[in-house]
Amino acid sequence: MTTLPRVPYPDPSTIVGNLTPRQEQILALIGEGMTNREIGERLGVTEKTIKNSVTGLLACLNVQRRAQAAVYATVRRVTADLAAAGRGEPGGSDLPARPRGRP
């Protein structure tokens, strides 16, 4: 069986504050599973504008794939929810460890 290469997830401490408000908005919508077209419709801009914005966002996050950005957005949202509920540190210490390879 072929093993996929490991691609590191972005380190939140190097990103927070480096994203523009629009990038934050787009990242959250990517985390919800929306397509470029859906994001464009929601924000009132063209799909091409969103595509260009996503390219810049991926570069800021230092990731190559949209799926990596979606995972980052989801972990970030869950971590914030846990912190708001008083059940976790804003570093995600209460989150399960990232899976390593296939079980």
Summarize the structure.
This protein has helices spanning 12-15, 21-31, 36-43, 47-61, 66-84. By secondary structure, it is mostly helical.
Topology-level CATH name of one domain:
Arc Repressor Mutant, subunit A
CATH architecture of one domain: Orthogonal Bundle
Task: Based on Cα principal axes, name the global outline.
Answer: globular
**Which percent band covers the strand fraction?**
under 5%
- Helix run count: 5
Distance between the termini: 13 Å
Radius of gyration computed on alpha carbons: 15 Å
> What is the residue-mean pLDDT, rounded to a whole number?
79
Order of secondary-structure elements? HHHHH
Query: Which CATH class of one domain is shown?
Result: Mainly Alpha
CATH superfamily of one domain: Winged helix-like DNA-binding domain superfamily/Winged helix DNA-binding domain
How many E-type strands?
0
Structural class: mainly alpha
Largest sheet data: none
